[in-house]
């Protein structure tokens, strides 16, 4: 039988034809001019496959405007707007607090690998404010120079909050890296940062967020559903879905987080973090529901799949699946620097965790929840597996006091303190971090700020501490020491000669 096809022009094509020619080159000024020329409702379209480099922000100028790629492709032919290297731009598109604006079917690239981290920079896309009905769909957002791939900011005004944002079918990431740069600036970034009421975050694929995958700042009435959030294969991710920030006076009333898929590759510390006291800070008051967290699937390398502490006024956690979480957790993570109660939960491979005294009001928690034995307040404490020992060659260790641990071992931290004391701490003692050895020879007034204390494993093989250039303590191994070895068992620190013989350890007082 012969099939006769009728040619029907899709609605999308009609819209793009109506809007005239597409933009194939230029910069932010080209797009900003088109927006201002078009007034409310203007549809500014980029040509498929166009790459527009910008050195400043594109900002909507009136309600109901749209930026999209002509023909609304969904793959790699979407036009790309990318920050050019050599400037301080961070936000690529700003919503200008206009209601009804739409960002659709384009790629937004902060270009961090070439343009660099922008300290204090904004998200790639910054919409929200006192606006309603904004839409971001089929947009790729990656490599932000600032703290998030996509931020829907609150209005700061309870009388006219940000409302009804629709964030659907986007592919987000990678966003940020782990750790800090040489100046101590955090390199991590969020995937989607939602601070808008009655909004929908659905069908997004977030891969390689390094702070939160979807961070829900209160956002009462919002729904986060059917998203896939996968941690980076290369960098740590702090959390997949965060409900830890006290915006809207702590209210998450009516928020539902359902049917999301969370996958830890290298590692997520937290799958779904819920409450004022699970992140690295403590909000001053409990966060408040009622909320529903249901039907989510968490698998792979996730240290703490669901953790709740600091919640009031209603929480339902049902039908979530954690059977695919890698076990034992010690095969991908190390919690030996966490608080004692968290170490216990980690060693038990607990996946559903709550602190009973930290959850008040109506609650319906699915079976399998394990109670923390104490007020567990920081689930970002896990890391990838830590070594049992590390060694320094001559001249390879030179630190000022209080510059962080010089040896970060499984169950042990070694640090050079602000009073010139070299201290070894056992982090697995049930009573908390316990010093197991200290060099002594402290400086009574402290090392000052900036520190005048310095510890060096010198080129002559001697480990020496100095205050203001004057030696305070040493291992007395000048001329014989060759390697400094730090161990997570006694005697903790050894100096070896070139043949590997121990010429000093902490059992020798000096
Ligand atoms: C929310 O925004 C969407 C997209 O702009 C719109 O279609 C819908 O009517 C809005 N809903 C409400 C309740 O304002
Ligand atoms: C747990 O500790 C945090 C931080 O100190 C505190 O704000 C919170 O009130 C404590 N929770 C309970 C139930 O005591």
Summarize the structure.
By secondary structure, the chain is mainly beta. The chain has 4 helices and 46 strands. Residues 100, 133, 135, 164, 166 line the site of one 2-acetamido-2-deoxy-beta-D-glucopyranose.
Helix and strand topology:
Blueprint: H1 11-18, H2 28-38, E1 43-46, E2 51-54, E3 58-59, E4 66-69, E5 80-83, E6 93-94, E7 102-104, E8 107-109, H3 112-115, E9 125-128, E10 135-137, E11 140-142, E12 148-153, E13 166-168, E14 171-172, E15 176-180, E16 186-188, E17 190-194, E18 200-202, E19 205-209, E20 212-217, E21 223-225, E22 228-231, E23 237-245, E24 255-258, E25 261-274, E26 287-288, E27 291-294, E28 297-308, E29 311-312, E30 315-318, E31 321-325, H4 340-347, E32 352-354, E33 363-365, E34 370-371, E35 389-393, E36 397-400, E37 407-409, E38 412-416, E39 422-426, E40 434-438, E41 453-457, E42 463-467, E43 470-474, E44 483-487, E45 493-496, E46 502-505
Bound molecules: 2-acetamido-2-deoxy-beta-D-glucopyranose (2 copies).
Describe this structure in words.
It comes from Oidiodendron maius (strain Zn). Residues 383-510 form the Bulb-type lectin domain. Keywords: Signal. The protein is mainly beta. The chain folds into three domains: 41-84 and 91-178 and 188-210, no CATH class; 211-385, no CATH class; 389-508, Agglutinin, subunit A. 6% of the residues lie in helices and 39% in strands. The protein has a 19-stranded parallel sheet that branches. The chain has an eleven-stranded parallel sheet with strand order 1-4-7-10-13-18-21-24-27-30-33, covered by helices on one side. Strands 35-44-45-46 form a four-stranded antiparallel sheet, with no helix packed on it. A hairpin with a 5-residue loop joins strand 38 and strand 39 (422-426). The termini are far apart. Residues 1-19 have low confidence and may be disordered. It binds 2-acetamido-2-deoxy-beta-D-glucopyranose (2 copies). One 2-acetamido-2-deoxy-beta-D-glucopyranose is lined by residues 100, 133, 135, 164, 166. The site of one 2-acetamido-2-deoxy-beta-D-glucopyranose has 6 residues, from loops.
């Amino acid at each position: 039988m012969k099939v006769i096809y009728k040619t029907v022009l899709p609605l999308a094509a009609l819209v793009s034809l109506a809007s005239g020619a597409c933009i194939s080159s230029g910069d932010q000024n080209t797009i900003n001019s088109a927006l201002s020329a078009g007034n409310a409702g203007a549809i500014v379209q980029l040509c498929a496959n166009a790459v527009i480099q910008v050195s400043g922000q594109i900002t909507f100028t009136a309600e109901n405007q749209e930026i999209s790629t002509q023909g609304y492709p969904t793959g790699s032919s979407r036009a790309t707007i990318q920050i050019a290297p050599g400037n301080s731009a961070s936000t690529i598109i700003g919503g200008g607090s206009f209601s009804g604006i739409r960002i659709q079917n384009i790629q937004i690239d902060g270009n961090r690998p070439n343009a660099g981290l922008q300290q204090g920079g904004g998200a790639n896309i910054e919409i929200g404010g006192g606006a309603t009905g904004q839409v971001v769909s089929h947009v790729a957002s990656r490599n932000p120079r600032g703290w998030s791939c996509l931020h829907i900011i609150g209005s700061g005004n309870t009388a006219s909050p940000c409302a009804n944002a629709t964030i659907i079918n986007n592919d987000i990431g990678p966003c940020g890296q782990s750790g800090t740069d040489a100046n101590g600036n955090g390199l991590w970034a969020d995937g989607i940062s939602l601070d808008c009421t009655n909004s929908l975050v659905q069908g997004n694929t977030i891969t390689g967020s390094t702070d939160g995958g979807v961070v829900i700042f209160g956002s009462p009435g919002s729904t986060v559903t059917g998203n896939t959030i996968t941690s980076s294969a290369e960098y740590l991710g702090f959390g997949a879905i965060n409900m830890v920030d006290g915006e809207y006076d702590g209210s998450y009333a009516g928020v539902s987080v359902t049917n999301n898929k969370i996958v830890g590759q290298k590692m997520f510390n937290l799958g779904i973090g819920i409450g004022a006291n699970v992140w690295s800070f403590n909000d001053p008051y409990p966060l408040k529901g009622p909320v529903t967290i249901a039907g989510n699937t968490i698998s792979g390398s996730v240290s703490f799949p669901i953790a709740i502490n600091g919640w009031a006024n209603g929480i339902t956690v049902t039908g979530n699946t954690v059977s695919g979480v890698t076990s034992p957790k010690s095969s991908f993570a190390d919690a030996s620097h966490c608080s004692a109660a968290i170490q216990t939960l980690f060693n038990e491979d607990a996946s559903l965790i709550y602190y009973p005294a930290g959850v008040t009001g109506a609650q319906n928690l699915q079976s399998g929840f394990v109670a923390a034995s104490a007020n567990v307040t920081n689930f970002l404490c896990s890391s990838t597996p830590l070594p049992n020992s590390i060694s320094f060659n001559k001249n390879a260790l030179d630190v000022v006091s209080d510059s962080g641990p010089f040896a970060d071992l499984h169950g042990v931290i070694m640090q050079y303190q602000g009073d010139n004391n070299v201290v070894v701490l056992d982090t697995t003692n049930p009573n908390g971090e316990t010093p197991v050895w200290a060099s002594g020879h402290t400086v009574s007034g402290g090392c000052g700020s900036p520190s005048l204390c310095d510890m060096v494993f010198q080129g002559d093989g001697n480990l020496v501490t100095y205050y203001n250039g004057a030696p305070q303590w040493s291992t007395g191994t000048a001329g014989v020491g060759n390697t400094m070895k730090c161990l997570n068992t006694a005697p903790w620190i050894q100096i070896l000669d070139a043949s590997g013989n121990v010429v000093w350890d902490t059992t020798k007082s000096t």
